[in-house]
């Protein structure tokens, strides 16, 4: 059954479902606009959470998941096919699948519940499937229908996007956690029942960030046109790559310099982190990555913050606080002065 839906912009920058978009309903007995309406808010919330996770994972990278990058749909405009495009597709697709699955477990949909298909079966040494596993099969199928339907082309870019959508869904499945409960006399664990649970979405994001760093480049842009032979070559190439891996067709710019034509913001003016707080290695090197490697200086800006502190409870019933002033130093990439050594802009490693 096919149904055609009008354009729906699921959030400000991305119209994921657009005019003439066709959704095929295979496995689910729900038909008509109702099926679409039931899931569309969940799909929208999922895509939004994917984008938020993208911004979190790339907060201290030169490319920081700007809105411009979030145009998932393929029609019109410039379509890049680089590593960052791959991540955007994977995390959006993962977000949609994750949210649909979570909604299902929370009982938000009438036609779906726990996955108990394996309950009662032996899962491994000393444990049985039981309880309420999150129904990723449901989330996977519905999200596939919504997200993959955006790719209407048959060229290498479309194949790349579909591959990365699938990698996003694989990431959700692959990070699920087995949770178990012991059974037996007074807490002894003679038998256990176990079920699969979704991880925190952050974990899916971190997993996909690793995949982003390891993304594979496929050489397909030239040659493989839209001929039947070209399409066959594209299909063969993608079939040979694991759907757990992200793929891209083009190299990324270094993201140092602003280029309005290409929608690149550059790193001038970006904040970076130096000391204080418990910083990880990636954050601690952010000033070098965002500023130094791009030929920009790091500018210190001092500010004072005022906040309530040393609050005491006075009987009865008042709380009195002092006003504490705290000096904070922030760091920004600036063109103000040349970095030491006066090195010109040098394309560094990938942001
Ligand atoms: C699914 O979950 C999201 C976020 O948790 C929520 O915003 C949305 O309303 C839920 N959808 C339904 C149909 O309950
Ligand atoms: C922006 O990129 C385009 C295409 O690569 C290039 O032709 C143009 O010179 C660039 N503009 C600036 C200001 O660097």
UniProtKB/TrEMBL annotation:
Record flagged with keyword Lipoprotein: yes
Pfam families per record: wnt (PF00110)
Keyword annotations of the record: Developmental protein, Disulfide bond, Extracellular matrix, Glycoprotein, Lipoprotein, Secreted, Wnt signaling pathway
Subcellular location: Secreted, Extracellular space, Extracellular matrix
GO cellular component, one term: extracellular space
GO molecular function, one term: cytokine activity
Domain of life: Eukaryota
InterPro entries xref list: Wnt (IPR005817), Wnt8 (IPR013301), Wnt_C (IPR043158), Wnt_CS (IPR018161)
SMART domains per record: WNT1 (SM00097)
Biological processes per GO annotation: canonical Wnt signaling pathway; cell fate commitment; neuron differentiation
General function of this protein: Ligand for members of the frizzled family of seven transmembrane receptors.
Family: Belongs to the Wnt family.
Name of the featured protein: Protein Wnt
Organism: Vulpes vulpes
């Amino acid at each position: 059954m096919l149904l055609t839906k009008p354009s729906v912009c699921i959030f400000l920058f991305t119209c994921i479902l657009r005019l003439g978009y066709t959704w095929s309903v295979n496995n689910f007995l729900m038909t008509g606009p109702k099926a679409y309406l039931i899931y569309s808010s969940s799909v929208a919330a999922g895509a939004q959470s994917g984008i938020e996770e993208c911004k979190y994972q790339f907060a201290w990278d030169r490319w920081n998941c700007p809105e411009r990058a979030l145009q998932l749909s393929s029609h019109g405009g410039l379509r890049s096919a680089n590593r960052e495009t791959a991540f955007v597709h994977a995390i959006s697709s993962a977000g949609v699948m994750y949210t649909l699955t979570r909604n299902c477990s929370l009982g938000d949909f009438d036609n779906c519940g726990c996955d108990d298909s394996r309950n009662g079966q032996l899962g491994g040494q000393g444990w049985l499937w039981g309880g309420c596993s999150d129904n990723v099969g449901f989330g996977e199928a519905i999200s596939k229908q919504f997200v993959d339907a955006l790719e209407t082309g048959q060229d290498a870019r479309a194949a790349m996007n579909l591959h990365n959508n699938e990698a996003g869904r694989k990431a959700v499945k692959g990070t699920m956690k087995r949770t178990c409960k012991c059974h037996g006399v007074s807490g002894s664990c003679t038998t256990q029942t176990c079920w699969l649970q979704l991880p925190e979405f952050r974990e899916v994001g971190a997993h996909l960030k690793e995949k982003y760093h390891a993304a594979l480049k496929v050489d397909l842009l030239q040659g493989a046109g839209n001929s039947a032979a070209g399409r066959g070559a594209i299909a063969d190439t993608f079939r040979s790559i694991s759907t757990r891996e992200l793929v891209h067709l083009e190299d990324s710019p270094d993201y140092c310099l602003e280029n309005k034509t290409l929608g690149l913001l550059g790193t001038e003016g970006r904040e970076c982190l130096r000391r204080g707080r418990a910083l990880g290695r990636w954050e601690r090197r952010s000033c070098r990555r965002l500023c130094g490697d791009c030929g920009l200086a790091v500018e210190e800006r001092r500010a004072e913050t005022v906040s309530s502190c040393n609050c005491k409870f006075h009987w009865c019933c008042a709380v009195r606080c002092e006003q504490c002033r705290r000096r904070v130093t922030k760091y920004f990439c600036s063109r103000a002065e040349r970095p030491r050594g006066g090195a010109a802009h040098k394309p560094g490693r990938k942001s």
